[in-house]
Amino acid sequence: MTSVLVIDDHPVARHGCRRVLERIGITTIFEAGDGVTGYELFGRHRPDVVIVDLALGANCLGGLSLIRRFSSENPKAHILVLSMHNDPNIVSRALEAGATGYILKDTAVDDLLEAFQAVQVGNSYLSRELASQVAMARTPSQQDPLAELTPRQLQTLTLLAEGKDYSRIAQDLHISYKTVVNVSYQLKRKLSTRNLPQLIRTAVRLLAPNS
Q1: DSSP class of residue 49?
Q2: What is the pLDDT of residue 152?
Q3: What does DSSP assign to residue 4?
């Protein structure tokens, strides 16, 4: 039985997703109206598919950091972005963060179902129009320093960007303080930073939604 987590700060959007999913027999559906609740539900229920909006509350791209955290904790997570943003650069950032598919909110219901069913089995999904725009926006010279990080390194970097110290990171990730120190050392080398304050500034720059 497929389970789905829908994260959107608009109740009408969540209700619409639920009705569409129930049409194809999906009954285990969790809903969250903000990123904190969404992250808690993801950890508690480990849903098969996550449908997430990029705009959460006042943060127009807050869903990006959620996607990064989901994919770092579970690289096989099936994540479908349902967003109003059609900017190919934003679409690219969502895919690079770990989204499996991306579809616009004004799409037809049948297209949403097609996207969901593709992502549900682990296939990527972009509409033909979005795929063309993303391909044109990307250049060979683009390099994402986050792509070189391991899931543990990305988790640690994300928590550093949130202002958490080594002790809190160790607690959140259920690892030793010494492991956090070692991972931070690896991050400094990979991201060419000399000390912890510089690493934190780099983490904020790379992971901040509006960067």
Answers
A1: E
A2: 85
A3: E
* Domain of residue 25, CATH code: 3.40.50.2300
User: What is the mean pLDDT of each successive set of 10 residues along the chain, which is 211 residues long?
Assistant: 93 94 94 93 94 81 87 87 88 87 91 92 84 66 70 86 88 91 92 89 73 43
Say whether both 45 and 115 belong to one domain: yes
Check residue 124 and give its pLDDT: 86
The structural domain count of the chain equals: 2
Give 20's contacts (C-beta < 8 A, 6+ positions apart). Answer: 109, 112, 113, 116
Q: Residue 166: what pLDDT?
A: 92
Please indicate, yes or no, whether residues 125 and 165 belong to a single structural domain of this protein: no
Give the distance, in angstroms, between the CA of residue 106 and the centroid of all CA atoms in the same chain.
Answer: 21
In the β-sheet with 3-7, what is the strand arrangement from edge to edge? 28-32, 3-7, 49-52, 78-83, 101-104, 125-126
Gap between the Cα atoms of 3 and 27, Å rounded: 8
- 179/181 Cα distance (integer angstroms): 5
Are residues 30 and 47 in contact, defined by beta-carbon separation less than 8 angstroms?
yes
Confidence (pLDDT) at 179: 93
**Distant-in-sequence contacts of 70-73, Cβ < 8 A, 24+ apart:** 70/42, 70/98, 71/97, 71/98, 71/99, 72/98, 72/151, 72/154, 72/155, 72/158, 73/42, 73/43, 73/151, 73/155
Q: Which of 63, 85, 67, 97 is nearest to 130 (CA)?
A: 85
Check: CB of residue 161 under 8 Å from CB of residue 204: yes
Indicate the SS3 state at residue 197. Answer: helix
